[in-house]
Specification:
The protein has nine helices and eleven strands. By secondary structure, the protein is of the alpha+beta class. Strands 3, 4, 5, 6, 7 and 11 form a six-stranded antiparallel sheet that branches. A three-stranded antiparallel sheet has the order 2-9-8. A hairpin with a 2-residue loop joins strand 6 and strand 7. It is globular. It binds iron/sulfur cluster (2 copies). One iron/sulfur cluster binds next to helix 4.
């Protein structure tokens, strides 16, 4: 597997607003996500803990899905959420925020981007480090294994050029997101839907609060692989750390949110925001 990623970042962005044929590959099945994020990066339980240990709990956000049938539905805030035995199912991923980016040779444009994407270099701020998610390190290996279209190929189709240089499936793929082996390690079940009143509605509107996000981060951190058990003491500690943690990520999200235009609109070329994230404490990236 080999890709030409320079100047791309297609898998770190929601570039649907600038695509001639926007794909919505995350919403084709019977359980569409409640949120509208594109290319959400799902994290494993141990990765969630690593982000918390690094004081980056504010970079994490949950994803829940609409139920495919009444049998699996857990109704919260009037929404039928997919679950198992009355427990809403969720993953924890990385937050995104609208940034001024210039992928694929475009003029600088406001697009929703992973919080860790450097909008200047289009490189990942945590690439190769101990917080670099498995899902990113092995992308698009799972797609290649399942013979599903990759984001690299979507970019090729939309804007031309060759991005996917070699489609060999890597040997070290992380376990799949779904299936029994994922329970408690990548796919989590919330033990008490009563705690989610009001939360599900805000998640569906794309406006979860820090406490809402921390509720799910806590359960994920307190989960046990292969079981539905949640260590409540550990979950409570993780919840607290997630709420209290306010890293450069929160400051960057606040900065961009105050200034961003509509998604897909041009950025004022005189804005001069090149070093903003670094000045807030974000790790630097190198050029290509
Ligand atoms: S979409 Fe493919 S080519 Fe583009 S940055 Fe992601 S992995 Fe690299
Ligand atoms: S963590 Fe890095 S590689 Fe993964 S989506 Fe975010 S910016 Fe892209």
């Amino acid at each position: 597997m080999e890709m030409r990623c320079e100047g791309c970042a297609g898998c770190c962005l929601d570039w649907r607003p600038v695509s001639p044929s926007p794909a919505d590959h995350e919403r084709r099945g019977p359980r569409p996500p409640l949120d509208d994020a594109y290319n959400l990066v799902p994290l494993g339980r141990d990765e969630v803990r690593t982000f918390l240990d690094a004081g980056l709990g504010d970079a994490l956000t949950p994803r829940l899905w609409a139920a495919a049938s009444p049998a699996e539905a857990v109704t919260v805030d009037g929404v039928d959420v997919a679950g198992v035995n009355g427990r809403p199912a969720f993953v924890v991923g990385l937050r995104s925020v609208r940034k001024p980016v210039a992928p694929f040779g475009l003029d600088r444009t406001w697009l929703d981007a992973c919080v860790f994407l450097d909008p200047e270099t289009l490189r990942c701020r945590i690439h190769g480090g101990d917080r670099y998610p498995d899902a990113c390190a092995t992308y698009p290996g799972r797609n290649l294994e399942l013979n599903q279209e990759t984001e690299c190929e979507r970019v090729e189709s939309a804007v031309g050029g060759v991005r996917l240089l070699d489609d060999d499936v890597p040997a070290d793929l992380p376990p799949p997101l779904f299936g029994p082996q994922a329970l408690g390690s990548r796919l989590f079940l919330h033990p008490d839907p009563g705690r989610l009143t009001g939360v599900v509605e805000r998640v569906a509107r794309g406006t979860p609060t820090a406490a809402d996000r921390a509720e799910f981060v806590g359960v994920a951190a307190g989960s046990s692989p292969g079981t539905v058990a949640v260590n409540e003491a550990r979950a409570a500690r993780a919840r607290e750390r997630a709420v209290d943690g306010a890293s450069w990520v929160s400051e960057a999200i606040e900065f961009w949110t105050e200034r961003a235009g509509d998604s897909g609109t041009r950025v004022d070329p005189s804005a001069g925001w090149a070093d903003v994230e670094a000045s807030l404490g974000a790790p630097e990236t190198e050029g290509w």
